[in-house]
Structures are given as structure tokens and as C-alpha cells.
């Protein structure tokens, strides 16, 4: 692996940028591995990385139906925050946020993590009470979050319209200063490069078509479009397709796959200093380093695997953005797209063992999985390596729906991604 | 945006409808006899199929009645909509192939 440094970049620049080598090995699948990870997005690649790095396992393959990180890793709006309400969720997301803070150094790969803060805008008395409750709950858990008046919110984000005469006036906002954005592709590439360097095989265009089982029902490997791959353990990290893959092993999940749309404007000069989200009127915006305004829309209401949705969903979001940020009314939208999100009834993820021995699942991240990429990968690797969950992800089982111990984050997660 | 045929009102735009999730999930006749596992299956576990789904819609900004639909989730193409109470219709292979196209 070529190590990146200011010196190596300068040397290659002076050399006309010749001599860069591929960042990960392109390989044919071997007939057998110790562990197969299904899904080559950020979560799956990260899981392989932590299995190799922290648990000393090397005989691992990541298999991906399409191309590397072409699913929700490439389609999300890259928001990272940890201001969730309940102890279980805030410790999971905070675990992830802490890993983000050192990820570029850890991977020797610039994931462009930018802690520009996340402002959650309140428009009603109910919003104010709920967000203040979030602020207090977070601070008791040692997670930064603070309450701003409308004037303080405008000082932090000058484009914000705090006129009392708009349809849903801004009454205040909560601010997590450590929240931010990162470069989505770089996260996947950085994990892929570091994992490949430790011996992990990354196999693209390889779709799982069946799960092999032994006489006791235990996992023995996977059938794929590129042949049979035997494995003692299989970890599924397939986002919107988790139900499809787990269905091959007869496991039903509490998931619904819905399209989630996003869109970007034409690129403009730096004009927007932070992330703003409004759960009540569903505005959701930040500016990418390229200059585009990145806007997250809502989920379409029906089950679909099409990676597209109805135009009325982003239109609704744009109405809210035009009201909160009048200066964007003349901005033209450049592209829109959809990804398939796997939503649980309590809007919290599942990172757990399944009823099938040797089969593990990391799913249900719904509309907010990007922020959890290193944290979920780290704890999923732990769960697979040790065949038992880490204390942080122990509550995030499939069985919580049977036992009635849901982690109801609908207020924090259903709209805000 | 989807064009949805309400069995009572005819074809209308998607914005008139509310989706009601998977159809033909019968509430157990005797809830007290259910195990926690069975009750969780009824309440929370879903097929979430990639392919043909039977689902409920409600014509919320129209006649406000529930009805069922068969739709291919790979293409969002509707095969048919039908009234509540009717069993899930059998679909022939040619129609299925058309919906997947």
C-alpha cells in the first residue's frame, strides 16, 4: 500500500502524477474464507477492516452485488451527529462519532470529516420542549448539545430566516457543534484500501443467490453469481436488501424498504456554514465542499426497490427550504436520486446475531446509516469475531421486537437522517 | 409519482392516497393464545418482497376507503387493485413478467 503524505503527494505531483497504483487488489473469489461479508458499502468494508485490524482475522471476503460503495454509501447526504435521545442510541452514535474524529489518521486517507455543527430548528412549543429534552439527555450522557435562541441560531447560520411572520417561525434551535459531514466515497475507499492491505478480498459484481446451511442449520457459506463461496461465518450488511438476503436463510426481519430521495443544487461559492434540519417542516440542507447545496427529502411511503420516488416528496422539502432560506429561491437544482432504506418500526438499527448459527446482520439503519459507518462496522466486527454483541450494540437485537424493548427514536431519526 | 386506480373512484394521482403497508396480515383470532414470538411476527415482521407485493392503500383525499393492490416493487408497476375482503388474486406468468419489465 502506498502511504499518503504531503511528501508523497508533492513527489507524485512533480512527477506528472505517474506511478499511482490501485488502492485495493482486484481478486477472483477463493472457494472458501473464514468470514464472508455480504455488502460492499461503507458498513461492510468497515466491518472487514475492523475484523482484520482489531480481531486479527485475515481470511475475509467482502462480496458486493454491484460496484464498491454504489448503494446508499454513494446516495446519502453525509450528515454525522450523535444527538439521539435514548441512552442506547446516543452511546451507539457517539461511539461512531468518536471514531469519525480520528478516522482520516487511522486510515491514512482523508475522509474530509468537517465538524461544522448541526442545527435542529424548532418551530412549535412542542419542538422546543422536545429539543430541550434532547439537549439535557445528551449532556447527561456527556454528549455536546446546546440550546440556542432564534437570534443565536441566526448568528450561527446567517442565511436562516427568523422573521416571526413566516408560516412556521423559528422559535430556537439545538446545536451539536461536533456534528458534521464527510466525503462519502472516501470513507468506503479508505476502508477498502486499508482492509485490502491486510489481506481482505474485495469482490465486486458478485450477487448472493443463496445461503448454504449445514445439517444443524448452521451457515456453511453463500451461493453467488460467481460460484459457491464457503465460509464459517456470514455477516450481512446489505441495507435495503437485508430482507432479501436474510430471506434466503428463512429469517424474517421487521423491515420495510422505502425509497429515500436527495438532491443537489448547482455549485455556488461557500454560502452555508453548517447543517440545518427542521423535522417539523422537513428542511434538510448543508453545502458540500464542491459547492452544491445538498438537500435530503423524505421517504416515499411504499415498499420499493426502484431507487427512485415521487417528485412531490422533494418538492415538499424545497418549499420548506425556500421559506427558511429565502436566498435559495433562485438556486437551480442539478440532480436528484433515490436510495433504498431499510426502516424498522422503532427507527433504530439491528446489529446482532440471527437465529441461524454463524449468520449475523447489521441492518435497519433506515434513513441515517452513514453517520454510523465506523461505529456500526466496529461493533458488527466485534459481534462476528466474538459471536456475541459488544455492550453498546447488545440492545440492538431482532428479539427486542418480541420482548417489547424497543428503542423508539422516531422523533430523532424518522425525519432527520 | 404513481397513478393508482382506486376500485371505487378510478385512476387518481398518488398524492390522494396513503399507503397502508403489506396486505392480508390477519389479526390472530385469539390474541391471548399467542406466544410472544407469534405476536411479534404479526405486529412487526414483514416479507418486504423484492418483486410482487400485496399492499393496502387508502384513498385518503377521495372516498377514504381502504383497498388492496398488487405491485412489483422492482418497477413500481401495478398489476391490479382490488376491494378489501377479496383474497389475494392469482397472477399468471405473462402478467408477472409484464409487471417486472
TrEMBL record, chain A:
Keywords: Cytoplasm, FAD, Flavoprotein, FMN, Nucleotide-binding, Oxidoreductase. It catalyses: sarcosine + (6S)-5,6,7,8-tetrahydrofolate + O2 = (6R)-5,10-methylene-5,6,7,8-tetrahydrofolate + glycine + H2O2; sarcosine + O2 + H2O = formaldehyde + glycine + H2O2. Its EC number is 1.5.3.24. GO terms for biological process: tetrahydrofolate metabolic process. GO terms for cellular component: cytoplasm. PROSITE patterns: RHODANESE_3. Its cofactor is FAD; FMN. Residues 35-79 form the Rhodanese domain. It is found in: Cytoplasm. Pfam families: DAO. GO terms for molecular function: nucleotide binding; sarcosine oxidase activity. Belongs to the SoxB family. This is Sarcosine oxidase subunit beta. It comes from Gluconacetobacter azotocaptans.
Automatic annotation (TrEMBL), chain B:
One of its GO terms (molecular function) is sarcosine oxidase activity. InterPro entries: SoxD, SoxD_sf. It holds the Pfam family SoxD. It comes from the Bacteria. GO terms for biological process: tetrahydrofolate metabolic process. NCBIfam families: soxD. This is Sarcosine oxidase subunit delta.
